[in-house]
Specification:
Pfam families: Methyltransf_19 (PF04672). The protein is of the alpha/beta class and about 270 residues long. The chain has helices at about 20-25, 35-40, 45-65, 85-95, 105-110, 110-115, 135-140, 170-175, 195-210, 220; strands spanning about 70-75, 100-105, 125-130, 150-155, 185-190, 230, 235, 255-260. It is globular and about 45 Å long.
Length: about 270
Amino acid sequence: MPTGTPPTPPRTDTSRAQPARVYDWLLGGKDNHPVDEAVGRKLPPQAKDAARQNRAFMHRAAAWLADQGVDQFLDIGAGIPTEPNLHQIVQRVVPTARIVYVDNDPIVLRHAEALLVSSPEGATEYVQADVRDPGGILRQARGVLDFSRPVALSLVALLHFLPDDQDPRGIVRELVDALAPGSHLVLSHAASDLHADLARQVTEEYARAGIRLGFRTRDEVARFFDGLDLVEPGLVTAPEWFRDEPAPPAEDSGIHAGVGRVPAGGAA
């Protein structure tokens, strides 16, 4: 059941494209506006594949973590709810699981009541906050999650919206430093080194809409996992990351993805 009531949402700006709404359009959702669709239509067809691959990776990683007994999740950059959402995946396995969703887009807040439909035994909460304020996110999340126990931190398809001048590594470090041993970082990130021409095209189209991107190489993405133990199969493309279920169909991808575990002594 929900642990709180979302505040009254601010007015949604429909004059400019927003990443969560463009992502919703790429996934075939209906909670977007013409300005978002206009951006999506200018992107290469592979952008829809990337959105789908990100989503499927999140499903596989969340289900595997729940199977390992992880019962607390902090999903930053949650986006517009698309079923099945993270809490539905997790609570099928662990009905008592507690999930905190975080996003800074007002339209996501507008859909928070639907997102907050938890299993009766568990809890979900929505926090409107910006990843660039990790301290504020942690303060609010502590009202629902017990950070003395393992938490799965999900940063799926988020960090490439933070260019280097916004200190994404410092942000991730502050979030990971708050996690107890046995916690996990679930991360996917658009690649600059797998399909350079496509990456450049996507970056330019988003820039025309006023959205800055910072795609990164595999080595640059690997630095987000510094101090963590990468879970097999390591840092791979999104369709290549799976654990106990049958392998997903092989397909080309421009997304790096991985899961890292906080070791017994904490992140180095």
